[in-house]
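batch job 7 of whatever, protein = Beta-ketoadipate enol-lactone hydrolase
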Amino acid sequence: MIRHTAERTPAGTSYLATGEGPPVVLIHGVGLNKEMWGGQIVGLAPHYRVIAYDMLGHGASPRPDPDCGLPGYADQLHELLEHLQVPAAHVIGFSMGGLVARAFALHYPQQLQGLVVLNSVFNRSAEQRAGVIARTSQAAQHGPDANAEAALSRWFSREYQAANPAQIAAIRQTLAGNDPLGYLTTYELFATQDMYRAEDLGSIQVPTLIATGELDPGSTPEMAEQLARRIPGARVTVLPEQRHMMPVESPRMVNQMLLEFLATAHTRPNPIKGIVA
């Protein structure tokens, strides 16, 4: 992975930015941080200005207010773009980052050029909802790494885990090192906000890609299809034989998909100006 020196916004958000061209923002998943995007930074930076940051409660960014909700996470991205003097960007959100990206699209449409939601959740079934609520309770009782082994089994193929033990160990350490309160606040939103303003998703008017892995048990192809049906013109891509952490496990495949989408999306102007929902 290419190492960059992280910087901070006035509000304390830790971020890194590299490359030149149309700006692309990367939002990580719950329990992770901006370092998960190493493969995408390498693949996208020759063509785009890539901005990756630590979500509230993660990495070197501050804790969220306990009652800030998804709008507070959208506000964090707004403040980051204002600090960088970026009028509008393509936003790529992974898992929990996909919920943040959706919230940003609804609250700050004038700052959005394109939207990519990777391996994220929408309209969980009763069984899926019960499972994630149970994991939230375990995290509240035992800390951020309470479900680490089960999570890694969901996230990665057995072959990848066996071939990359050092990387798996590093991710396990990242999970364990999370601030407990920041992690729990974020995980509770991840567990409960899959239908956040679902009735308003039809207002999103930028090029949109919804993608997941064929074998992703928590962010299923069915979820991707349902979400895409709510957003006008959204595309759906299901990558074969991929599990949840496909940006890490298969960066070349994911990068090819992203580059193909961005090549067409960044040429289209943002039709929404000056509207804040």
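notes: Residues 269-277 have pLDDT under 50 and may be disordered.
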